[in-house]
Amino acid sequence: MSTATRSISFRLYPDKRQQALLDRKHAVLKDLWNAALEERIGAWRRGVRIRLSYQEKALKTVRAEVDGWRGLVHTHEAQTVLKRLELAFQAFFRRLREGQTPGFPRFRSADRFRGWSYKEHGNGFKVEPRPGWRHGFVTLFGVGRMRMRGIARTPGQILKGDVSRDARGWTLNLVVGTECAEREHDPDAQPGAFDLGVETLATVAYADGSFERVENPRHLAEEAEALWAEQSKLSALARARKISKRALKKARKEMARRHAKVAARRKDFLHKTTARLARVLSLIGTETLAVRNLTRSARGTVEAPGRNVAQKAGLNRSILDTAPATFLNMLRYKAEEAGTEFLEADTRRLKPSQRCPDCDAVRKKPLSVRTHDCACGCRLGRDEAAALVLLRWAMAEVASRDPDAPPRDGHPAGTVGVSAAQAA
Ligand SMILES: [Zn+2]
User: Fold this and answer.
1) Could you tell me the distance, in angstroms and rounded to a whole number, from the CA of residue 376 to the centre of ligand 1?
2) 368 Cα: distance to centroid of ligand 1 (angstroms)
3) Which of 148, 174, 201, 357 is 20 to 30 A from 298 (CA-CA)?
4) Is residue 59 domain-shared with residue 22, that is, in the same domain?
């Protein structure tokens, strides 16, 4: 990932109820700042230095004790307030070391407390910029989804954010990585849609009639599982006291390092795959991902003979299970950045896995049936058929907005998708 970052500001437009929630969150976090500061000053007077990790651990208790905290304040919001205080104290100690006589960091009144931050997009806050990054929506934990206004000249991947209040109202500042700004469509990009699975992570149907299977990187899941096995062996040794504390500590550290490595490689694979798809697709269709759909496909894969992903252990499967959601999120934001329309069909209405992409007939297929074999003569793999239904639906959606528009290049034969959408 590129290190070049850029900051973008958006004005927030909360409604009355959200305004009240924002004010309350602001008050709770201001109190947290003041309480944490008081604790640090008291400790310093006793000659003790309090660390950030100590105060972060205390959050668990604080959360249970403070009225109105639960459901309103996200852990990352609280952690970033504590982190800001830590930085203020570091500066305080630095000045002390330099022989100055600095004052303590200050207690904050409601007017002097700026706000809070978010460490990671999707964790406590979610931004939905409109195509071209002009305005959009943001969802804040405990507050809800609200309109935001602002224009990004250099869009990118959202890394962090912070929310602040001033006399004019609320502002969201985003830090974005700018490497994505260079991402462009291929000159021959075409519409496509995908069906999500577990072993086959995604089956993509392209408008030119071709299909692509994106396989889950199984070797990474297997590696992770091998690691877990080693780890439980280690724990058994530790329980039986057959290993020294020192050796145990060292082994655990090594294990954590290897876990992180596998996780990083999985993430890298998903980033590369979604980046490529966002480049080659000019319109993306899929179905709304529900947990139900995921477990269904997980079960489906296990039931299908010869395709059992994870009969031997639930863990391997649980690792694979997280991939579709990550894949979907990554592709969604990369499509947004590229200005590519991303359409999600209502699964229950469209029934992509039961509908025939050619004749539109709906017939229930048991999960074990891996092929689509329709009376109309349409024969495809189950996942391919579902992806094709989604593709035709997405293209019909776009076409129905502008009835005079000529069909795009590579429009699949027939207008089945239109009837599919109308029937739904
Ligand atoms: Zn058919």
Assistant:
1) 4
2) 19
3) 357
4) yes
